[in-house]
Amino acid sequence: MAPRAESPTPRAESPAPRAESPAPRADGPGTAAEGSTHAEATAPSTPSRRRSWLVQGYRVEADLAHQTLCLSIPAEGDKDEDEPELFATLRDAPLTSRMVSAALLAHKAKQFDDGVVAAVELAAQQGAGRLRGKAYLIETWLAALPHGAPAIPAALLLCAARLGGVARDVPPALAAEVARVRGELLADERRSKPLGIYTWSEPLRRVFQQDRLLQTPLDEPGQVEALARALRDEAAARTTYEGVLALASRLTGPPDTPDLTPVLRSLDRGQVEVGRAHAIFPPSRSVEAELANKLFEGGPIPEGFDLIGELVARIRDGRVDLRPTEGSGWYDYQTWSLEPLVAPERAPEAARVSLDRRYREHLLALFKGALALARETHVKQLAVPAPSCAPPFPRPRPRVEIDVLPELAAEPTVSYFLRRSLGYRFVRKALEGAFGADALARLERLTPEGPVELPLSEELARIEGLLFGAAAATASDLGMSLDEAMDPAFRAACALVGLLPDQDGALGSGRGREHDVEAFRRFRAQDDPDLGRDARMMVPVLYDRERRKTKVWVFLGWSAERVLVSFQQPPLVRIFAPDGREASPPEVEVRYGALTHDVPYPVVAELYVDRLLDRDELRALCDRHRGRRAILAALRGGGPS
User: Fold this and answer.
1) Which domain holds residue 255?
2) Which of 253, 246, 251, 258 is nearest to 282 (CA)?
3) How many helices (H) and strands (E) does the chain have?
4) Is residue 99 located within the same domain as residue 208?
5) Which residues lie within the region annotated Disordered (predicted)?
6) CB-based contacts of 262: which residues, under 8 Å, 6+ apart?
7) Bridge partners, 591 (sequence order)
8) First to last CA, the chain
9) What distances in angstroms separate CA 438 from CA 33, 434, 577, one per listed residue?
10) Model confidence pLDDT, tens digit, residues 552-566
11) Last residue of a domain, one of 215, 234, 268
12) Are the C-beta atoms of residues 91 and 526 closer than 8 Å to each other?
């Protein structure tokens, strides 16, 4: 049987209207923008808050300005919520809704993000455009060895060169030390085992292990000074080093450990100031790692501690602020985009929707899954710290019945879509800054099967347009303008990226709001190869020294639940007879119905493990044990068995 994907027709709780003209919204959502050229900045068109359609010659007009929708998940008595049915891919799940789920777009974004980071990693290693690359830097440092720089950590750099595939013979006098450094790294799977995209190819595996080695803090001041002096003596190397650091900071986040730039600046002043520890290419900070360090640095981690649950609680009560700043990286933007999923009452669209407890739990599950997937995309670079709404009652049938249904192009998470879209503009500008616009147009996104035959610059514009179109289309379905959805936090983030969000074409693909909405409404999940990919994975979040175990987030697959969308406050509806007069009961009757949608959600767990599993190892274990309880028991028991 062919795999099933989201698209066809939602179940109606009341009979579907017998439409004689197109339904009040387009028949489904759409492919992303076909191009990336930015349009001239003009005032955005105001989306209509009215819908009109024909039923048996009667014209129905619905004013959505006063509409409020209710989203709920009815309880199913025979369903074991602790043992959901698991599906490896979204196409395996029994999804029949034409409403595009937030989980589907999150999964699409995950696959895209993986490909972007994979392409950028290889370009940053070998060099592209104006960035000469990390291989060039390693060669530069090693070239300084015969020229009076004995303090340079030669064994570390030679080992990194061998791991990263940078051609370099090891002098016999250093062979034993290089072997020791390499052996120590490879013996520590937490540091050296490639995870995520870094299992796709040998070049990516090499980059993972090379960079993990070069994240090692150097506590010998002479070594740090020698590395900095070699950069200062070679202007191109210094420019490249600063460019590599800036790229890592913009792609993921600010450094967790000092790099060599403070030492370089002190040398520029004629001084030598070396701190307690510096790393050549330090890992990046994350909000979850900072929280773990804040809570447990110097103390034991209590039994049953739930890091992601604690993070959610602090986001909700304001102790953790996810808003981006000048120093934020793309991972920070990705994390910030998820805030409306755990605090939906703070989103601008909250006034248009009412969410029951079970639906809020559904959004919480999506937050956990999307954050875990985003973290795995950045797994090499991120530091791992070691510390009631019901359908109306039917009445007797009049001569003409008009069914008004709560149509939604996508789940009503407008703020999430907007923020995720802005994150792609941020990373596009970061990559243009690192490599140059011409070089970005020559790069291609990678997949496990090879490169996508489209320029990365064009693909970035397309996915930005897809998510922006989702936001605009869904806002329109909620009866609100997209400008209403742009709250002060979003506008402040736009300012950080250098955008004026009120100009048409400033956001999205660059081809205008209407183009992106129509492109989104044409989107067909079953035609998108990214949505057929297996996302099951394990990603480390902290190491517990006392237990000698790693706490991980593990993505076990997808499940699905039925979401009921109904009216809490229906739209104002007027009906006009074929002769033009306004019709009223008993000639016509308006019935406000409800729709059910099978909506996917990610199944994620947080637990301690003795060893890390890469994607293939975890997927084999999941396929062997199948159920959530059995999978988690196997993981707690030590991994593959």
Assistant:
1) 130-268
2) 258
3) 22, 14
4) no
5) 1-51
6) 273, 275, 278
7) 403
8) 31
9) 20, 11, 59
10) 999 999 999 999 999
11) 268
12) yes
